[in-house]
């Protein structure tokens, strides 16, 4: 009886370890660094933006990153204008989130802070108030430094999205 319980514990432990390895490898294969990159001009400043347009890319976003270069960011591409909520699950970098309409007009700008150790169901939700198609994520404070304001438009390279 004791031997059987010990064997079961070992099998469960090995199974959990293998699941953890699979999950970690799956995350690295979906790493945003493998995403398509485009250049967007934000108030005459060129930003290299990683494109997140699949569910997997959007779900991963900028999570697991410890830094973001000064002129880097991510653009999330959705199929339709809607209210698109975001959270900072596993995200270690403070970010500006900028929601845009399908024509590039800024509808909402929010600054989000990492929430280490916060349970999933307690994470703060950041969302737009006007339906939007795109969301830009930049280092926190960049929106203000660049003079980006609600109502202003950004020219997007639509053919690359």
Strand order of the largest sheet: 1-2-3-6-4-5
The CATH first-level class of the largest domain comes to Mainly Beta
Instruction: Report the sheet with the most strands, covering strand number, pairing sense and barrel closure.
Output: 6 strands, mixed
| CATH-defined superfamily of the largest domain | Protein of unknown function DUF192
What is the rounded Rg?
A: 19 Å
What is the chain-wise order of helices and strands? Answer: HEEHEEEEH
Poorly predicted runs are 25-32
The amount of beta strand, in percent, is 25-35%
Task: Walk me through this protein's architecture.
This protein folds into two domains: 1-30; 33-160, Sandwich (Jelly Rolls), CATH 2.60.120. Helices cover 24% and strands 29% of the residues. It is built from three helices and six strands. A six-stranded mixed sheet has the order 1-2-3-6-4-5. Strand 4 and strand 5 (106-112) form a beta hairpin. The chain is elongated, with a radius of gyration of 19 Å.
SSE layout and pairing:
Elements: H1 2-29, E1 37-42, E2 45-52, H2 55-60, E3 72-82, E4 95-100, E5 106-112, E6 132-139, H3 142-145
Give the tags.
161 residues, alpha+beta, Jelly Rolls, elongated
């Amino acid at each position: 009886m004791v031997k059987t319980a010990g064997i079961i514990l070992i099998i469960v432990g090995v199974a959990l370890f293998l699941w953890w390895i699979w999950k970690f490898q799956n995350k690295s294969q979906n790493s945003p660094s493998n995403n398509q990159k485009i250049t967007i001009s934000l108030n005459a400043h060129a930003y290299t933006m990683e494109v997140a347009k699949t569910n997997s890319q959007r779900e991963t976003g900028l999570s697991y990153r410890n830094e973001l270069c000064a002129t880097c960011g991510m653009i999330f591409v959705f199929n339709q204008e809607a209210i698109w909520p975001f959270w900072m699950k596993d995200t270690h970098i403070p970010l500006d989130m900028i929601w845009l309409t399908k024509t590039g007009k800024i509808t909402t700008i929010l600054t989000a802070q990492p929430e280490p150790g916060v349970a999933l169901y307690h994470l703060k939700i950041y969302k737009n108030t006007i339906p939007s198609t795109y969301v830009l994520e930049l280092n926190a404070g960049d929106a203000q430094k660049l003079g980006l304001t609600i109502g202003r438009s950004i020219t997007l390279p639509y053919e690359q999205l």
